[in-house]
């Protein structure tokens, strides 16, 4: 009868889910960090990232007792770091869980939700600014081309390219405007960052 039961597994340590974010002051982060406070727990998790295995196999890999391995596997599973990926059977027909890393990679950030919101707001503001700059640059390009003054704006650049043996090279005014805007935006961000670093903390 035991010969009909699966004694091998196809469980994989690949993580294909979307990354989960934990903030250092989050409600669930304490349990996660607590489950990793032991050297043995970290060794077990590292081992499972290399190859899924049963509790007895994991115990042998990290040189600990079966009872201790089961204890850490339970903690890691409750913290969402480990999952039961499959079930297989011993030669005697005993059912064994096969453990593997969670399907979602985990990322722990040092900070808080308020800082996260501030960062996301700043990122959205930057994207909006660049988008607005792109629209204005497109309008500048259309205005210059419509008025037929593009060849008058950069005549020297075109003549220089022609004199060097190549065809006329005229940089689109809209692209020049966009690049200049990005340069100014970058300098403004650097200056703002410098002010924050150099300002004395009260």
UniProtKB/TrEMBL annotation:
Record carries keyword Membrane: yes
Residue stretches spanning the membrane: 125-145, 165-191
Pfam families: HTH_20 (PF12840), HVO_1552_C (PF24267)
SMART domains to which the protein is assigned, alphabetical: HTH_ARSR
Keyword list, A-Z: Membrane, Transmembrane, Transmembrane helix
Region span, Disordered: 1-24
Domain HTH arsR-type: 31-115
Protein name: ArsR/SmtB family transcription factor
